Amino acid sequence: MSMPKMRRDMNAIARERLAARRAAERAATPAVPLVSPLAPAGGFPSLPPIAGLDLSSVAAGIKYRGRPDVMLARLAPGSVVAGVTTRSTTRSAPVLDCEAKLAAGADPEAGAAFLVNAGNSNAFTGGRGVESVEAVTAAAAAALDLPQSRIFTSSTGVIGQPLPHERIIDALGTLAAGLAPGGWPGAARAIMTTDTFPKGAVETAELAGGTVTVAGFAKGSGMIAPDMGTMLVYIFTDAKIAQPALASMLRRLTDRSFNSITVDSDTSTSDTLLVGATGRGAEVTQADEAAFEAALGAVMTDLALQVVRDGEGATKLLEVRVTGADSDADARKVALAIANSPLVKTAVAGEDPNWGRIVMAVGKSGAKADRDLLSIRFGDILVAEKGWVAPDYTEEAGAAYMKQAELVVTTDLGLGNGASTVWTCDLTHRYISINADYRS
Amino acid sequence: MSMPKMRRDMNAIARERLAARRAAERAATPAVPLVSPLAPAGGFPSLPPIAGLDLSSVAAGIKYRGRPDVMLARLAPGSVVAGVTTRSTTRSAPVLDCEAKLAAGADPEAGAAFLVNAGNSNAFTGGRGVESVEAVTAAAAAALDLPQSRIFTSSTGVIGQPLPHERIIDALGTLAAGLAPGGWPGAARAIMTTDTFPKGAVETAELAGGTVTVAGFAKGSGMIAPDMGTMLVYIFTDAKIAQPALASMLRRLTDRSFNSITVDSDTSTSDTLLVGATGRGAEVTQADEAAFEAALGAVMTDLALQVVRDGEGATKLLEVRVTGADSDADARKVALAIANSPLVKTAVAGEDPNWGRIVMAVGKSGAKADRDLLSIRFGDILVAEKGWVAPDYTEEAGAAYMKQAELVVTTDLGLGNGASTVWTCDLTHRYISINADYRS
């Protein structure tokens, strides 16, 4: 059954009213992005130099004008690199190139470089996209005196338009000349697209051989339902660690950080997380692994939450905790069903303690659930239990809680010990405004 | 890692600006629902009487004031009933009661009745919800002189609040007195919640024994990603057909109609589709089955598309066709990934021919796909092929096409013969306005 059979005429009066309403809505929504109300109050954190790491950024005019849009990170000889990339079947040419280079595991003695542009994702650009990656990595290898196999590139921005890679190549001289240990703020800004603030994080770990630093930056802020990590994340450390140990740590931590956030359930074609360890600081011995993993995990979760805090249009940060599930996998299904539900997300935007929509999301999740064993809490407030509203719950208490900028909703399924936590943001008019004319 | 670790302070200036913007947006969005611009131009169709069927409706004040909100359909002795209900694990008390009665397959000689209220879904209401269904069905059985096993009820509206079932019981006398063959428009209006127009459809089938009629009505219009059918659908026919034949037809047709639409990817706790066949008209012999199934399928698809046309905030109807997939199941995965993508739906709202978001959705769908074999069409316009934009495609042609109210996007995966079609609507400011304060 197809549409020709359907009545096609429009209600002319309704159309006119609709056009008027759209115009009014456009007028009411400022075109200049505000800084997210959930942005960290202190601004971009002060990130210390990492021995063996230099950063640089430049305004190359890829798409944006008058702002840095290409970032270069150079890692000294001896640095190991690990990474995780999107599992999207339509992933971009630079993602495929990074995957091949990570799998090949080239000799770290040469050093390495990460070269990233914003404004164009070089995704779905066919053979020409592959040629762009080849041209950029070859030019960067020559400019930095590195093997081409150690040049990792990422591109973020619009899909399906040819990357003007010559602008990146032309900028390589300026980028190389600008390399400096303190280049963090410019590098973090250069990778932004619809982000409203740059995202950085730092932790230290006390190892037997001394203190090491883990610091990095990330970008969001739409098309965020990572199937590995968020769109682009770069983390660096001076720790000395074997590549396989770093890679396996990264896989574990990614599931609890970047793979546990969602802005809009849409998965990017460009998701890339790269970690470079220069090895100039203390060694991560077996006894130190837990301490180092904790620091790396803290930086990853901090950056992941900053991505949610800058989710397109976000005004509320929602932590979705699920406990008592039959398995961790079931808990994750329920948590993602809640976090991705447009009805839950609009209720949060409206500060409406509409717990019925949580019940709906549990029901559609596909996880094992028994309606009459469910309980739901908003913060510490018991909202529902045993399949119905809790006797002491009041709508006033729920409504007061929902006014907070940061919310925790806990759903206990009452079945077993499976648990999962996922973070998301609300769904607001601004998300619509941003995405109904991002490209045009 | 939990939130206490995160910086909690807010950017005071950003908050103030946000509050001002929200106020402006609220002012720009009328509180009174318009009729959807996609509503059929002719209004509610003229539905003929069905021999053996009487309909009635009444304003019982369940939640709404001054409009009908309870509907009664009485089917004469000899009528068979088939139905499909939601698979949500948190489905409502009336859904569970319908399931039990459909499974028990009681004697049709007594006749049957469908009794439906809007304004309260009687979902997640614990033991009290079950008591409400018991009380209503017992009272209706007495009032209509039917066995309680032949009273099928549905409830739609807010979740988690006790159903004021005594108001339904008090209205039974008025409902019974008002039963009449021509009660279609009132019945269709009585089941509406956020719907902006009542939805009806009719077809006839020429059987060997004569012409039979299939007519029915449905409601939407949010929480629509049916896991069986949409929220509430009632279809009637005078055909004489065995219950098992009707039930198996219904399962087949549901997959191609109500299970192929999505407004917001959220699945209701109340989804119920009931079909009553009075058997007063011609018999559906084996030779007639295809003709009857075609008529029933046409009514179901017509109603399903009307639900999408009245999706909350909808201004565009999008038909998502997927061909060339490795299997039908893979085609469906891709079609649903496209149809449920907030980024695709906002692009449609913004009349933006942003085919990169289609590529993204293919990539995240989980279906087998090869980026370099993909092709995408907007209507008859070839937009992308072989992993990149088509040589003759122009942005102007795409933008002109997107201005239509009804759009067809075809994605060919170039792999096999799997195909699927799904219908959805755009995601607009009005969806946010409706759902950010539906309850409060």
From TrEMBL, chains A, B:
GO cellular component, one term: cytoplasm
Site positions (Cleavage): 229-230
Listed pathway(s): Amino-acid biosynthesis; L-arginine biosynthesis; L-ornithine and N-acetyl-L-glutamate from L-glutamate and N(2)-acetyl-L-ornithine (cyclic): step 1/1; Amino-acid biosynthesis; L-arginine biosynthesis; N(2)-acetyl-L-ornithine from L-glutamate: step 1/4
Keywords: Acyltransferase, Amino-acid biosynthesis, Arginine biosynthesis, Autocatalytic cleavage, Cytoplasm, Multifunctional enzyme, Transferase
Reactions catalysed according to its record: L-glutamate + acetyl-CoA = N-acetyl-L-glutamate + CoA + H(+); N(2)-acetyl-L-ornithine + L-glutamate = N-acetyl-L-glutamate + L-ornithine
Active site: 230 (nucleophile)
InterPro entries attached to this UniProt entry: Arg_biosynth_ArgJ, ArgJ-like_dom_sf, ArgJ_beta_C
Site feature (Involved in the stabilization of negative charge on the oxyanion by the formation of the oxyanion hole) residues: 156-157
Enzyme Commission code: 2.3.1.35, 2.3.1.1
Record Pfam families: ArgJ
MF GO annotations: L-glutamate N-acetyltransferase activity; L-glutamate N-acetyltransferase activity, acting on acetyl-L-ornithine as donor
Residues engaged in binding substrate: 193, 219, 230, 312, 435, 440
Locations listed in the record: Cytoplasm
Main localisation: cytoplasm
GO biological process, one term: L-arginine biosynthetic process
Domain of life: Bacteria
Top enzyme class: transferase
Keyword Cytoplasm: yes
Similarity annotation: Belongs to the ArgJ family.
Function, in words: Catalyzes two activities which are involved in the cyclic version of arginine biosynthesis: the synthesis of N-acetylglutamate from glutamate and acetyl-CoA as the acetyl donor, and of ornithine by transacetylation between N(2)-acetylornithine and glutamate.
HAMAP family with a match to the protein in the record: ArgJ
Assembly notes: Heterotetramer of two alpha and two beta chains.
Protein name: Arginine biosynthesis bifunctional protein ArgJ
Provenance organism: Mangrovicoccus algicola
Gene giving rise to this polypeptide: argJ
